[in-house]
Amino acid sequence: MSNWLEITSLDSIPVLGSRVVETDTVNVAIFRGKDDNVFAIKDECPHKQGPLSQGIMHGDSVTCPLHNWKISLTSGEALGADEGCTNIYDTKVEDGKVFLSLKK
Amino acid sequence: MYKYHSSYFFPLFWLRFYSLARYLLLHFQQHLNGVLLVSQSDKQNLILVGNGMAGMRTVEELLKLEPEKYNITVFGDEPYGNYNRIMLSPVLANEKTLEEVMLNDDNWYQENNIRFEKGKRVSEVDRVAKKVIAEDGTELPYDKLLIATGSTSFMLPLPGADKYGVVGFRDVKDVDTMVEAAEHYKKAVVIGGGLLGLEAANGLMKQGMDVTVVHIMDTLMERQLDEPAAKMLQASLEEKGMKFLMSHSTEEILGDERITGLKFKDGSEIEADLLVMAVGIKPNFVLAQAAGLHCERGIVVSDTMQTFDPNIYSVGECVQHRGGTYGLVAPLFEQAKVAANHLAELGYGRYEGTVTSTMLKVTGIDLFSAGDFHGDEDTDELLFHDVANGSYKKLVIRDNVIIGACLYGDTIDGTWYFQMMKDGTNISDFRNTILFGQAHLGDAGHGDETRVASMADNAEICGCNGICKGEIVSAITEKKLFTLDDVRSHTKASASCGSCTGLVESLLAHTLGGDYSEAPSKKPMCGCTELTHDEVRQAIRKHGLKNHEETRKTLAWKNDDGCAVCRQATNYYLLCEYPDYNDPESRFINERAHGNIQKDGSYSVVPRMFGGMCTPKDLRAIADVADKFNVPEMKVTGGQRIDMFGIQKEDLPSMWKDLSEAGFVSGHAYGKAMRTCKTCIGDSWCRMGTQDSTGLGVKLEELTWGSWMPHKYKLAVSGCPRNCAEATIKDFGVVCVDSGYELHVGGNGGIKVRVTDYLTKVETEEEVLEYAGAFAQFYREDAHYLERTAPWIERVGLDKIKQAILEDESNRKELHERFLISQKPAQIDPWKQHAEGVDEHQFKNIKIKVEA
Q: How close B604 comes to chain A (CA, Å)?
């Protein structure tokens, strides 16, 4: 079961940009794609824990700002020849509001 | 109805029905993976005829671009997967096994859902019905057909050429024949003293045979080597035991069923149990010609690798492009890229021919040649000939540009010369040392260890990622990497600062052999486009492209959003064209957050201190800010200012607010931007000082601060030639002398120290400022993104800079004027703006409480 949490309005996330959601346990990076699709991923690169929220987003992936690993926002997996995986979370947008589910 | 019912009971019908059903079942099984399934999907059918390097490379490139577009079938008449034909010489020489040179094994075809018709020769292409027919009767329909039938050995039409023991040197079968002959026979003759012939002869010697090379000319490899180099080559091969019959023309092959010898035109004879004809290759276009495609010396293709039938493409040694045919691998790979681009229906790739170079794969012999190495009356020749050391280097130069090279013995700089030849680099600045090689050049891009071949396996190549030579070499051979990008993604070598790119490229060339000196003449900006930095920039100017989306759309980017590499570069080119332009989401985080991201995700803050000058009030303000925000660590930087570390992103705006109120602006220590202007104290205090270096430094920093640049950009002013401010390793350095100011450019204290080039001397501070602005603007408008002034100057040549800044006064003034215009928006302090709420969202995290 999803447990939807209202996070913010869609407008407060820049297109191809991100916001950071801080919870007690984990920081989650929320990205907004060009078609207003929203992704949520643990704000930690599987390589050296770089903050993915600070990377450059393109398509459905993000390039980590520390060492340029490319991470898929749909699977959490490192792309290309790199290997590693981080958590992703479900999101939905309703009436211009972004919801996040921290449960798998 | 009745009629049908009655026939059920008719025995003959049952018999017919049975055989029909059986036939259908068999037929169905035979085509289970093919026609029947193919016709069920919406995909188009692509058939490749010719399972060789060019065709398969096209398929691989296509899979990268459009993996789902086609059902792909590959026909190959050899009973193997795709192997590296170039490596047949090392296989023959027992240096490699067939498995080691296999590029795509059977599994690969399966994994990529490619139907592989192994060992099937296609006998006909029916262009009307759009199908191919193989010798065994297999018929398959195509929507697009790719013909890559390669070439065959050219066999001299000599009497007796059909005897046993006479072979070409083209495929695994030929190698097998030779290896088998070596087990039973002793004497081998190779006709042809070219690249292939010598490699065959070398291999046969390694197999234990007594080898004589028969060559019609009086020097070896006359198409690749001039006479001195050819003589040196012949001498070293003779030392290894190879025999030569130069200027010999064969008349007849002797023997009954099997060859026993050769008879020459001069009447002499030689014994032989094996004859390898290596006099050349000829494009194999029999299939294409029979299908009615236009062929001359090869299958005629356009710049898009299309034949005269728009549904049929062709690549490789079988094609004739702009009147020429190719027999080396680098051009084939470029063709493959273009063909794949059009098969993927991207529609913008163009093949415009390739300048090729040659290396010989004979262990212990190093030779390299490229271009026109003979020259004519209009060319100069640079020559280095050390007979005792067996080293020979010749460069042919026209108008200070390399047009040909021929190296023997010491070929380490072959790729470097070749690159300059392809780029048309003006070598006048280092013409007098060029023959000593890249290591002797004050190069900015690479380390001075360009001699990769002699480096130990544990020598570190990539200092950023700690990758050693051995790791790279084994990745290249084991993972079958061909390109710089391959090596970068698999090993990370040269993927960070890029300063070892040259080393990695040399390693690729040396590991793979000369055919792979594949450093493309044209380096695309990134994987999203085929266009170079210059081409993208020119397109932005020419078409007046106003933003990222327009640029990517107009220039047919492969990915809608681009990637982290091209977004940053394009952003710079756009803002250079339109000073007000900015897209924060296309900036690296440091420039977006106006601070340097540290490894723990915190940021550093460096306020600007003009010319390194400060007051007690300034220092107190910084101390107060540091106290207030509990800054864990502070440091005086090399650029004469103060760095505060460990700042959380959320605290940045309020910290900036305090600094801004105390009169500070951003130091841009985080950007591809003007950083600092370092000064020494100058004549206001120093007894050696000749001018007011601090005053001038402040003025220079006031002029240039905030400017976005292709890369970081540093200035310095030294008050006298003792140069305490180290002005001669800065991008723009001023050394004050009694009579005025010396201006120096293109220095670098970074990855590779480079001393500046002397630009000129001026008399007044006003002139210094004008030249400083003009030089900065020329660099901004001309250099590639992420290219510092040092490699930029080495690439374009100091002459070009002198022309733009010194010789053309009005151009200098215009450049300076454009710089001032660009500085208006650039000098609105980003810290003040952000402290006032610009882009607030990025500094504010969303905090939520999750109930357990």
A: 15
Q: ∠ CA(B176), CA(B179), CA(B184), 5° rounding?
A: 125
Q: Over the range B200-209, which residues count as b (16 or more CB within 10 Å of their CB) and which as e?
A: bbbbbbbbeb
Residue A23 in contact with partner chain B when CB distance is under 8 A: yes
B848 touches chain A (CB under 8 A): yes
Q: Identify which of B561, B586, B597 has the shortest CB distance to residue A59.
A: B561
3-state secondary structure of B759: strand
Rounded CA gap, B143 and B616, in Å? 79
Nearest residue in chain B measured CA to CA from A10: B841
Reported ipTM: the value is 0.92
Interface test with A, best of B478, B549, B561 (most A CBs within 10 A): B561
Q: Using a CB-CB distance cutoff of 8 angstroms, which residues of chain A are in contact with residue B848?
A: 5, 7, 21-23
Range of the domain at B226: 166-279
% pLDDT > 90, chain B: 63
Pairwise CB contact (< 8 Å): B588 & A50: no
Q: Provide the number of CB pairs (under 8 Å) joining chain A to chain B.
A: 94
Instruction: Report the domain count for chain B.
Output: 5
Within 8 A of A55 by CB-CB distance, chain B residues are 564, 589
Which domain-ending residue is among B587, B605, B623?
B587
Reported as a pLDDT band with limits 50, 70 and 90, residue B388 is confident
Q: Are residues B108 and B187 in the same domain?
A: no
Q: Which pLDDT score is estimated for B462?
A: 79
Say how many CA atoms lie within 13 Å of B40 toward its Cβ: 6
B 550-569 residues inside an 8 A Cβ radius of A? 559-564, 567-568
Q: Tell me what pLDDT residue B84 has.
A: 84
B186 assigned to some structural domain:
yes
What is the set of domains in chain A, with CATH numbers?
A: 4-101 (2.102.10.10)
Contact B564/A58, CB-based, under 8 Å?
yes
In this predicted model, what pLDDT tens digit does every residue of B53-84 receive, in sequence order?
Answer: 999 999 998 998 888 999 999 999 999 889 98
What does the pLDDT average to over B530-556? 93
Is the domain of B696 the same as that of B788?
Answer: yes
Q: Tell me, what CATH number does B468's domain have?
A: 1.10.10.1100
Name the residue among B584, B589, B848 with its Cβ closest to that of A23.
Answer: B848
Task: Give the model confidence (pLDDT) of A17-73 as tens digits.
Answer: 999 999 888 999 999 999 999 999 999 999 989 999 999 999 999 999 988 899 999
DSSP symbols for B722-733? T-TT-GGGSSEE
How confident is the prediction for chain B on average, in pLDDT?
88
Chain A, nearest residue to B602 by Cα: A51
Sheet holding B633-636, edge to edge: B596-597, B603-605, B642-647, B633-636
Write the residue in B489, B561, B587 that is nearest to A80 by C-beta.
B489
Q: What confidence score (pLDDT) does residue B41 get? A: 60
Both B274 and B287 in one domain: the answer is: no
- In this prediction, residues B420-428 reach a mean pLDDT of 86
pLDDT tops 90 at residue B293: yes
Last-in-domain residue among B349, B378, B407:
B349
- Note whether B749 and B791 are same-domain residues: yes
Whether residue B601 is contained in a domain is answered as: no
- Are B39 and B128 found together in one domain? yes
Q: What is the pTM of this model?
A: 0.64
Is B540 found in the same domain as B552? yes
- The answer as to whether B332 is a domain residue is yes
Q: B113 and B41, same structural domain? A: yes
Query: B758: domain CATH number?
Result: 3.30.413.10
Among B277, B90, B89, B284, smallest CA distance to B168 is for B277
Asked whether residue B266 falls in the same domain as residue B288, the answer is: no
Give the whole-angstrom CA distance, residue B632 versus residue B644. Answer: 8
A10: which DSSP letter? G
User: Is some CB atom of chain A closer than 8 A to the CB atom of B850?
Assistant: yes
Confidence of residue A101 (pLDDT cuts 50, 70, 90): very high
Amino acid letter, B443: D
A19, A20, A24, A47: best mutation site toward chain B, by most B Cβ within 10 Å?
A: A20
Q: For residue B372, how far is the Cα from the chain centroid?
A: 23
Residue B456 falls inside a structural domain: yes
